[in-house]
Amino acid sequence: MATKVLLAEPRGFCAGVEMAIKALTWMVQVFEPPVYCYHEIVHNAAVVTAFEHAGVVFINDINDAPEGSPVMLSAHGSAPEVVSAAAARAAVMVDAVCPLVTKVHHEVRRMADQGYDIIYVGHEGHDEATGAIAEAPHAAQLVDPRVGLDTFEATPGAKVALLAQTTLGLYEWEGVLGSATERYPDLWTARKSDLCYATTNRQLAIQKLAEGSDVLLVVGSENSSNTQALVRVGRNAGIPSYRIDGPEGIDPLWLDHADVVGVTAGASAPDQRVQSVIEAISPSEGTELVRVTQEDEYFPLPPQLRKFMQTLQALIEGGFACRTPGEYGPVELDRHLSATDALTILGV
């Protein structure tokens, strides 16, 4: 029986996920269902199920959204043709792409326009990688970090740039970076790594957990790249590490000889799931927080949604002749609303 849980901080929702969940919550509050979302809003089964119950229909082909319907694009970023098609079909289209993913999309386009061959380090089939490569498919080649540069061929005499999926493990990125730097001495990379700050922080936290834990549990869904990266980081540290969606995923055998259990969560996992995991473990000596840094990043709601909601608020207040100059509305108060609060509105 476990005596203690070491709980990572930071863990769970990052600023991009917070923004996307709140944005889709507003969509289902404002519009009659169904609201259509291109790809899962974030890669977490519990979050997706909650939105499905609220009237969201997740689609993998933008043409499955009826013309004139409200449409949201997921946090992982979408191909340019998908964004254009969604804008043409939707009555209201909101792109909930994470700003850090948008940065990589800009880098792909800029490097391609300057004639670079681009090594894009990412996982085949991941929504983020698919969207980024689509920005310049003639110039960007996907390189799986588990395979390395063997699949990359630069055009003779071409300049080479190195970009990455934001949710990679640090060790994955650094491995390809080292090989690429050696092969291409004039390699271009962003001055600041493309890896998401939240991804990096959660990996540092799990390394700290590994120092004092007998086993590590990572809460998150199977299709969450950053969650899977946390599991690999734990195993690379020599600690048995397992991914679970929630308490139902815990194998009692994992805890048979574990006095101290480390617990963390991927960047798209609700903290409600984390707390239920701790309750299932029921450590006799309680929970100890292991903090490696403080996160205070905030990403505002997508501009399309902000403008729509501000217009809607003005129309309603004007119609009732009750507008009070200087009074805050939901957009201005968004910084004080968390994604956990938003999911509570949905009954999670």
Describe it:
The chain is of the alpha/beta class and 348 residues long. The protein has three domains: 4-13 and 197-291, Cobalt-precorrin-4 Transmethylase, domain 1; 15-97 and 317-345, Rossmann fold, CATH 3.40.50.11270; 100-189, 4-hydroxy-3-methylbut-2-enyl diphosphate reductase, catalytic domain (Cobalt-precorrin-4 Transmethylase, domain 1, 3-Layer(aba) Sandwich), CATH 3.40.1010. The protein is 39% helix and 17% strand. The protein contains twelve helices and 13 strands. It has helices spanning 15-30, 45-53, 80-89, 99-113, 127-133, 170-183, 197-210, 225-236, 252-255, 271-281, 303-319, 339-345, and strands at 4-9, 35-38, 56-59, 70-73, 92-95, 116-121, 140-143, 159-164, 188-189, 215-219, 241-244, 260-265, 287-291. The strands form three sheets. A five-stranded parallel beta sheet has the order 11-10-12-1-13, sandwiched between helices. It has a four-stranded parallel beta sheet with strand order 3-2-4-5, sandwiched between helices. Helix 2 links the parallel strand 2 (35-38) and strand 3 (56-59). The chain is globular. The two termini are 29 Å apart. The relative contact order is 0.18.
Question: Which helices and strands, and how do they pair?
Answer:
Blueprint lengths: L3 E6 L5 H16 L4 E4 L6 H9 L2 E4 L10 E4 L6 H10 L2 E4 L3 H15 L2 E6 L5 H7 L6 E4 L15 E6 L5 H14 L4 E2 L7 H14 L4 E5 L5 H12 L4 E4 L7 H4 L4 E6 L5 H11 L5 E5 L11 H17 L19 H7 L3
Parallel strand pairs: 1-12, 1-13, 2-3, 2-4, 4-5, 6-7, 6-8, 8-9, 10-11, 10-12
Helix pairs in contact: 1-12, 4-5, 7-8
